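Example 3.2
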Amino acid sequence: MSMLKVEIDEQEVRNLYLERIEEKLKQVDAELVFWDSAELKRRTGMSWNTILKEFFYDERFPKYKVGRDWRFPAEETKQFLLTWLKEQPRH
């Protein structure tokens, strides 16, 4: 009777897992042309009141009112948020 021994490189499994997650996130990002306020809150992890207070009224922040709702172009909004974040004081 022969035994089969299997060794798993946990780091390699982790790397493959993270690559798959990144691919999936890119697919989701590619699917969204614009965000609504719920998506903006989810992406930033901020409440609507915090968004209003921190950057909503910044003239560089891309936003469009469609009827009663706000829409935010996904790519432009991501770029703005990264720029805005880098401008924040580090404590």
